[in-house]
Amino acid sequence: MLIDAYFRTIISKLEELWWGERENIAAAADLCAKSLAAGGVLHIHDTGHLVSRELVSRAGGLVAATPFNFHLNVENPNFHRDRRREPPPPGDPELIRLALKRSNIRPGDVLVIGSVSGKSASVVELALQAREMGVSVVAVTAVAYSSRLESQHPSGKRLFEVADVVIDNHAPYGDALLEVPGFDRKVCPASGICAAAALWALTAAVVERMVGMGKPPSVYRSVNLPDGPEDVKMTQEQYAERGF
Length: 244
Description:
single chain; alpha/beta; Rossmann fold; five-stranded parallel beta sheet
């Protein structure tokens, strides 16, 4: 059955991730723990899949995990010039510069950027500009897959080539894992589950390091526990006061 094939395959991928990325996850945890202990923030940006939603405001997750997304909306209706203008290209340097300027991202923070392909101009430009302003960049991407793709950034670089630390999610070329007899394409991507597992491993390592520093971080308990809402509020207030 393909149910069994899926579980065998994804478990194998997770073991591959575990042993292949253990040192990179530890290196990313060192960056994050050092930043958070000094009052920095862990920002998370991805290209619309799992990464940012998975870590933010979750039971057992860091309160410091903060989503970073940006859009440009312009309202300027005119009857004579009633034509839709094309939005700026996703990797537009000025748009990204403005987004960073208007954000809560500061030098010394850590920015996790998730992109399976790592080829888009926007993620590469974001990584480059963030590093220029003194932010450490952790990339979560599929290195073997990305290596076979052409970058859309003018530099010709892909995300894994411009980050401080790279966590490879070990997704194969094309991402999907399973062949279905009688069907002409593979199904079930590896990237989402592997990225989530890598980032929860990163979270565990960050907490371990900060506890060892004598600065245990603010971590959510479930809002669904009997005292959940009160505990969540207290934890958020603690984070707001301490900064970690």
